[in-house]
User: Which sequence fits this backbone?
């Protein structure tokens, strides 16, 4: 009977740890994407918070748009990852000066960023990105994503290291489970 209560306590402890927010989630209100080479082209930007893409359908603006097509900034957050021109955002600055900015309309604890690049027969060599995450005016993260080989790249912003409170909860829980099992073992008699 005590063993079942120990298992129930361990399950409850695990549930509490699983619900805790990720240790390295980054609170983000907007993101900027730049290219490491000439023209910026983005088929889709995805920012995940609690398993949801919080970038989809948000306000996207850019410093330029390619003059020969309707490859507007909103195409980078429309939910379409296929990467065929003109259904992508395509900048017009051939000096790697384009900046795509997505305003999330609020603060989200983002754990993953993904960028889909171009998949048609042209220009996949441009799918190399620099992203900068902002919380208001403060820069809270930056990195690079290289999607040139696969037209898709992801960075996990949530690390595998739990917060100190989660460590304390886990260690305390394991101690309780170990103590309960030790007491149970001491009370067993062989008749």
Assistant:
């Amino acid at each position: 009977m005590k063993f079942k209560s120990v298992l129930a306590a361990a399950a409850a402890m695990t549930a509490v740890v699983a619900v805790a927010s990720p240790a390295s989630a980054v609170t983000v209100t907007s993101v900027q994407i730049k290219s490491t080479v000439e023209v910026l082209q983005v088929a889709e930007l995805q920012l995940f918070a609690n398993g949801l893409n919080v970038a989809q359908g948000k306000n996207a603006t850019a410093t330029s748009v390619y003059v020969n097509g309707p490859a507007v900034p909103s195409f980078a957050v429309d939910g379409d990852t296929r990467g065929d021109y003109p259904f992508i955002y395509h900048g017009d600055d051939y000096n790697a000066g384009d900046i795509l900015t997505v305003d999330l309309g609020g603060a989200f604890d983002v754990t993953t960023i993904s960028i889909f690049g171009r998949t048609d027969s042209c220009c996949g060599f441009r799918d190399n990105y620099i992203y900068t995450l902002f919380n208001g005016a403060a820069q809270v993260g930056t990195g690079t994503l290289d999607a040139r080989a696969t037209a898709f790249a992801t960075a996990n912003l949530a690390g595998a290291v739990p917060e100190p409170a989660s460590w304390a909860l886990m260690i305390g829980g394991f101690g309780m489970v170990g103590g309960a099992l030790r007491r149970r073992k001491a009370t067993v008699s062989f008749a």
